[in-house]
Amino acid sequence: MPPILVIGSVAYDTVKTPFGEASEALGGSATYFSVSASFFARVSLVAAVGRDFKEQDWRFLEGRNIDLCGLERADGRTFRWAGEYGYDLNDARTLDTQLNVLADFRPKLMDAHRAMEFVFLGNLDPKIQREVLGQVRKPRLVACDTMNYWINGHFNALLETLKLVDILIINDAEARQLTRESNLIRAARKIHGWGPTTLVVKRGEYGALMFQRNGQGRISVFGTPAYPLEDIFDPTGAGDTFAGGFMGYLAGIGKADWSSLRQAVVFGSVMASFNVEKFSLDRLRTLTFTEIELRYKEFKEMTRFDDVVEWQPSWRV
Ligand code: AMP
To answer: What is the mean pLDDT of each run of 10 residues along the chain (317 residues)?
Structure first.
């Protein structure tokens, strides 16, 4: 099973939702991604943390069998993000972003990491995403995430990165903002023109849609609902956890054909649905593979419908 290389943020997040709050909790795009993907494949995490990064958090990641050789301990403070959600949990408001050690982070990949085939460019400065990808010798599948922070301030750099990406995984607001299109099919067409042949749009409580470019400018669409949960405590990291399940599954089976990509969207949705059940990474800490398997089956059942066996002639008029 090919391992995955991920770069992104490792953070301490302060998050407020209508149902509670967490202060300085372990978070970050690469953290959520790695923990989620680690259920399916071995992950090598490339990021930087500060001297204040807690030993227990390092041990937790190591305990999930995540390779931390590329996790640099730099002088300074770990990245901080503070955000707030109202009753619309799809809408995160960023209150504060402190890049700290990530501001000067210029990763130099070690030889073993340069040989990786599955690469996830987590939410980070698009220039750094490109620098890292440039060091990977022969990437087989490259997926990428981004957010409003980078779309607003680093648009051209982001377009340069996208030229090298196979799959862009973003949420619907980001897709609209990036393409300045309100219609997602039009947004997908634009993004396909920039490089990625596949766009996966995460739509929070409404599920996920995948838009694939096929020959003659046609787009094929695949969609899943979100898992119906009554209690959602903290949507932070749902997107990265989705990406972790998605890429983790593909690396786990070593394939990225049409049918596997569809399964991967479901695994992404399964993992994200667990993550939002508790604050920070708390739900993923106790999650078992049996629970993942069971929820995957529930997704299948939820979206299954039969052919009509007996069309009535009167219906045709
Ligand atoms: P998500 O909810 O999946 O979109 O991602 C939430 C995670 O992204 C949080 O744990 C944050 O620490 C991290 N994050 C927020 N802003 C940024 C940023 N500008 N660059 C990198 N990571 C960020």
So the answer is: 92 94 96 98 98 98 96 98 89 93 95 97 94 97 95 96 98 96 97 98 96 90 95 92 98 96 98 96 97 98 93 81
We report the CATH number of the domain holding residue 167 as 3.40.1190.20
Q: What DSSP line would sit under 101-144, residue for residue?
A: GGGG------HHHHT-SEEEE-SS-HHHHHHHHHH-SS-SEEEE
The order of strands in the sheet holding 20-27 is 20-27, 11-17, 79-85, 92-98
Give the range of the structural domain holding residue 85, as residue numbers without chain letter. 4-316
Tokens of 38: 């680690």
Instruction: Indicate the pTM of the whole model.
Output: 0.96
Nearest to 5 by CA among 180, 189, 146, 134: 134
Among 26, 29, 32, say which to mutate for ligand 1: greatest number of ligand atoms within 8 Å of CB.
29
What residue's CA is closest to ligand 1, atom 10?
Answer: 28
Residue with CA nearest ligand 1 atom 1: 237
Phi and psi angles of residue 83, each rounded to the nearest 5 degrees, phi first: -145, 165
**How many domains does one find in the chain?**
1
Among protein residues, the one with the nearest Cα to ligand 1's atom 9 is: 28
Q: In the structure, which protein residues have their CB atom closer than 6 angstroms to any atom of ligand 1?
A: 9, 11, 13, 27-29, 32, 81, 97, 123-124, 147, 149, 236-240
- Per-residue pLDDT at 248: 98
Phi-psi category of residue 204: left, alpha or beta, with phi > 0 → left and psi -120 to 50 → alpha: left
